[in-house]
Amino acid sequence: MKSFLLSTLIISNFVTAGETFKNNNNTANETSFRDFVKWTFTGKNPKRVQIETSEEWKNLDKNSSNYAIWIGHATYLVDNGDLTILTDPVFSKRVSPFLWLGPRRLISPAMSIKELPKIDVITLSHNHYDHLDISSLKEINKLNPDASFLVPKGDKKLLVKSGIKNVKEFLWWENLKISETKFTFTPVQHWSARGLRDRNKSLWGGWFINSSSKILYHAGDTGYSDDFKETKLRLGSPDYAFIPIGAYDPQWFMSYSHVNPSEAVQIAKDLGATNSFAMHWGTFILTDEDVLEPFLLLEQEIRALNLPKNFFRAPKPGELISLLGGD
Label partner for 276 (CA 20 to 30 A): which of 26, 269, 302, 310? Predict the structure, then answer.
């Protein structure tokens, strides 16, 4: 049986309560509540397994810079040589409005919040519970009171209500320079909701992070679209991209909102990214694919296209990734 949380999120996709934002292709998710019921009763229950993790992050010291660490799901700790950035931080045991119900972590976060270095900027891609975790954000804010929280248009009030004050909202293509790094909010194909009556009342997107030494891109959560070609056209190609590869099965139901590994590789190609890293897999069971399948299919796609292994790879949570080139 699917979790109550996932049911709530999917059902909200069929509630029309004053929609505010739309995807660039001007089409809506065509799945129906009947499709949801079909999936609920015919879908699989993948076996709970743990992916391999690493403790390389413990090699960090106060002088470390130009690195990335996958903490789990869509959460990356990134130091670009100018700022220390945390993407979609989710450290809770469940992604749910409840402590006792909803998708439960398969693996612990590679690092705890208290083990993180000083954080300068937190980026949020959209307000789904597996990307916007208020409990984690409050704790991060408490330890990093000067940090900036960059959020999609419509989500600021949620953070301010929780006592987080340094919040800035963005529409697509709006940008902000912090220190020597420019953050631009870019379009992806997805949707938003945290309940039954707020569908698409806040925006969703990716983050293009440009400094003098390197360009990073975090895709958030997305289906495949032409948005990535447009991002490259407007902003150029990132040196390093963080792209989701999981939560796609069954594709007849999920493909509008989530990419499979083959589509993820195509996103990397559309962006012209030099190096890409996987996320959004192996941390929670949200859909029907086996836990390890996204990793296996990604490797299969890289071999089939005869691409270099470092073009797009799936790092272990906790692995220390150099952002100095030559990975």
Answer: 26
**SS (HEC) of the chain:** CCCHHHHHHHHHCCCCCCCCCCCCCCCCCCCCHHHHHHHHHHCCCCCCCCCCCCCHHHHCCCCCCCEEEEEECCEEEEECCCCEEEECCCCCCECCCCCCCCCECCCCCCCCHHHCCCCCEEECCCCCCCCCCHHHHHHHHHHCCCCEEEEECCCHHHHHHCCCCCEEEECCCCEEEECCEEEEEECCECCCCCCCCCCCCCCCCEEEEECCCCEEEECCCCECCCHHHHHHHHHCCCCEEEEECCCCCCHHHHCCCCCCHHHHHHHHHHHCCCEEEEECCCCCCCCCCCCCHHHHHHHHHHHHCCCCHHHEECCCCCCCEECCCCC
Please compute the mean of the pLDDT values over residues 135-155 and round it to a whole number.
98
The arithmetic mean of pLDDT across residues 250-270, rounded, is 92
Predicted confidence (pLDDT) per residue in 194-215, tens digit: 887 888 999 999 999 999 899 9
- Number of folded domains that form the chain: 1
- For position 125, which CATH number holds? 3.60.15.10
- Asked, for residue 31, whether it belongs to a domain, the answer is no
